């Protein structure tokens, strides 16, 4: 789960990392009042969980409270890379002398963390890394050893950061471990004209697996920005929304992941995926079908189940009963294999729903679902394909 900049800022502050004075609001009128409190001149910053806000016009200096109100009015509601701005942070402007980049990121393959730091921070670290890789220091961090004073000094020196950045590197490591984060990033970390080192922008990605021991994450740190994901989570479903056209339902994370790959291999894009785990009751099937079909991008749905403890006839029964309450609006391709597959297929066959078709193999099912989705998505062949 990614945090907003204003949430990252609050956490940095708690760990003693210097940040500019700031407050976050959701209306232009409030922006004016906060600007007055902050001394008039403020930086107005869009709060969205994506980078590049500066380039997109989501970060702007306002000279006085009236300008802050106007700027906030312009930025609120703005779309930045598909994210709607609902809040703006107003920050006291800082006199920047130098901008640096620092982050810790989990290196899964190496089983450790990586400190990435550069004296050329600011807007586009990816570009610096691509064009001048020597300007970006990458130092492995052993999670068992952590970032000691020496390690922090090593990272700062390798990146050409001033020694005053080292304490920030140490505190950032504490943020990462204490908050169960997978990523902490500060870009820019700045040195001001007075020699102070401040975190001017922050990104934190928390490890969702640690939610159980991070009680304080609570409701205000909801991981579900997407309304469909939120609705699915409320029903206790593991649902992830993507942006393709084939809805994918399966049992077990491994099977669901490989189904995504096979669908992609058939030239279609997954619209979402949902893992029913061991559940196959009519209620679960009704819930998953309604969640998947509620996504306007979905043109076909693929149910891929390998029956184990959950037998295929139970899944088929669940689908048939679910179809009494859920109106199927898109074609559904079902592949049942494993425990009681024959009985499950017979149940669906007998139901003979015009929009439900079956396949016996995963590849075949994916091909059918992909063909149905791409046919529906291309305007050339709308009429015969929609016959019922
Ligand atoms: P991002 O584009 O989403 O990464 O947003 P940032 O918060 O990093 O802001 C982009 C850029 O705006 C920074 O690299 C700074 O150059 C500039 N900026 C942000 N806040 C301030 C500030 O308080 N004072 C000044 N002078 N520049 C700022
Ligand atoms: Mn930034």
What can you see in these coordinates?
The structure is a single chain. With 388 residues, the protein is of the alpha+beta class. Helices cover 36% and strands 26% of the residues. The chain has three domains: 21-91, ATP-grasp fold, A domain (Dna Ligase, domain 1), CATH 3.30.1490; 96-215, 2-Layer Sandwich (D-amino Acid Aminotransferase, Chain A, domain 1), CATH 3.30.470.20; 227-381, Rossmann fold (3-Layer(aba) Sandwich). The strands form four sheets. Strands 7, 8, 9, 10, 11 and 12 form a six-stranded antiparallel beta sheet that branches. The longest helix is centred in the C-terminal third of the chain and has 16 residues, at 362-377. The radius of gyration is 25 Å and the shape is elongated. The chain starts with a helix and ends with a helix. Mean pLDDT is 91; it is low at 380-388. Bound molecules: guanosine-5'-diphosphate (GDP) and manganese (II) ion (MN). Guanosine-5'-diphosphate is lined by residues 20, 43, 45, 51-54, 59, 91, 93-94, 96, 99, 122-123, 187-188, 200-201.
